[in-house]
Amino acid sequence: MRVAFVLPLALAALVVAGASFAEAIGDAEKGEKIFNQCSGCHQVGSGAKDRIGPHLNGVFGSKAGDHEGYRYSNSMQRARADGLVWTAQTLDTFIENPKTLVSKTRMSFRGIKNAQERADLLAYLRIYSDDPANIPEAEPTAIGTDHDLDPAILALKGDAEYGAYLSSECLTCHRADGSSDGIPAITQWPEEDFVIAMHAYKRKLRPHPAMQMMAGRLSDDEIAALAAYFKDLD
Q1: Count of structural domains within the chain
Q2: Confidence class for position 144, pLDDT limits 50, 70, 90
Q3: Same domain? 110 vs 190
Q4: What gap in Å lies between CA 24 and CA 29, rounded to an integer?
Q5: Domain that holds residue 124
Q6: Cα(42)–Cα(57) distance, rounded to whole angstroms?
Q7: Are residues 67 and 180 both part of a single domain?
Q8: pLDDT class for 151, splitting at 50, 70, 90?
Q9: Closest CA to 94 of 133, 42, 51, 134
Q10: Rounded to an integer, what distance in angstroms lies between the CA atom of residue 218 and that of residue 223?
Q11: CA dist list (Å): 157 to 63, 66, 151, 211, 214
């Protein structure tokens, strides 16, 4: 059963009047309708409870995987340990493609590709994080403008042999046999997922300092080569 929540009249009036800070992100009234895509798993608003996914009250500015009483996947727990915080930018990236930030998330959702729809949804969710009038357009609510990965990068065909040559630094931590002993496995990943994840580190969306440093040294072609190599590594 889907759960719908009605905007408080005072907040709805702010949105209609165009005077709220939330409007700088998107249209909260439209976002309420878009939330129907999420409401099979999540609730938000007065009386919201955890369902298949955690409730989303107070999500802005919170740490990933930090909702008390909800059992998160190992991948989300690792994201929390790495310091992932839900800002407008990271939420926007996650909603567009959850695997961008948390590769093995249990969240079975294909994502919302339309940027305006994501902005409207975030404007709606932010109402239940705090009074919009009290949240400036800065972290944790400011949206970055450089988080869309160029389709040309995803279209690059990686050289697996070159990837094998580059992989030695990766394999100092990650296991070539695909086992995961405190460090997530990266073997047999789909190439697109690998490339998206590495560029998220490169653009400092994924918050792991060592990975940010390593990804920052790699060119687009080198990331594509590593993706091609690890995709078929037994």
Answers
A1: 2
A2: very low
A3: no
A4: 13
A5: 9-134
A6: 10
A7: no
A8: confident
A9: 42
A10: 6
A11: 35, 38, 12, 22, 21
